[in-house]
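FAQ

Q: What does a record look like?
A: Structure on top, sequence underneath. For example:
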């Protein structure tokens, strides 16, 4: 994927996003799905798309340019967790965005929420990016490798729930798991163990490798830690459904 920052004739900045998988039908379809999904969404946490076109067998997406760094880069630069007040503020806005997405019929599932897909703008607004994996809640979620990026179409291992990894279908609670795993990392600066590793440990009567946030960061109240871990339950039936 290549992204350029361009200036339109009227002076406004836009981002031009180009695919690098013109010969891969599945990835090309994911890119086209991102364009169609974003074009009809209107929410302050979601980027605005203005155009989508194909030229010389390459697909292009024109969207608003969002300056700033993703939260993964911010964490790497800080080498410590974000302040609790910041994370709770972002969580409130992200839960509102998920409520908006999941209220569609059928629900729109992002499927790849992670620190790398959250950008903090120069105005300190949080933006949820990369809808290439988003889909209406109607199909399967089998994974196909994309190479050295660490992601696959369907999930990013450390933030994906068990049902997504197994390909048994995603739903709004799948996004809740991914958001909770992301918040876990933002509050601890520790990448969470993936769901398969956790499930294997529990099946072998070992302790869950996910430690309570309040043990890793003493500034986090136990009540907050408990809510995040509730969202990261292996069984989706035990997760909360969304914003209270």
């Amino acid at each position: 994927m290549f992204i350029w920052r361009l200036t339109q004739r009227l002076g406004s900045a836009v981002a031009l996003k180009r695919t690098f998988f013109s010969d891969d039908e599945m990835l090309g379809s994911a890119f086209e799905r991102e364009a169609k999904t974003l074009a009809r969404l209107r929410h302050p946490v979601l980027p605005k798309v203005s155009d989508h076109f194909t030229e010389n067998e390459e697909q292009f997406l024109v969207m608003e340019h969002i300056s700033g760094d993703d939260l993964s880069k911010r964490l790497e630069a800080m080498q410590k967790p974000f302040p609790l007040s910041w994370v709770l503020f972002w969580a409130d806005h992200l839960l509102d965005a998920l409520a908006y997405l999941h209220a569609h019929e059928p629900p729109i599932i992002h499927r790849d929420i992670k620190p790398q897909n959250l950008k903090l703008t120069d105005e300190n607004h949080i933006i949820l990016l990369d809808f290439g994996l988003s889909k209406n809640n109607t199909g399967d979620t089998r994974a196909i490798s994309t190479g050295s990026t660490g992601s696959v179409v369907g999930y990013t291992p450390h933030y994906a729930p068990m049902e997504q990894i197994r390909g048994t279908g995603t739903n709004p609670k799948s996004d809740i798991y991914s958001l909770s795993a992301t918040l876990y990392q933002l509050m601890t600066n520790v990448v969470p163990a993936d769901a398969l590793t956790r499930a294997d440990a529990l099946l072998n009567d070992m302790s869950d490798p996910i430690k309570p946030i309040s043990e890793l960061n003493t500034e986090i109240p136990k009540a907050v830690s408990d809510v995040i871990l509730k969202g990261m339950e292996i069984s989706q039936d035990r997760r909360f459904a969304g914003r209270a």
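Q: Is there anything notable about this one?
A: Helices lie at 25-39, 71-78, 84-102, 162-166, 172-188, 195-203, 213-216, 222-231.
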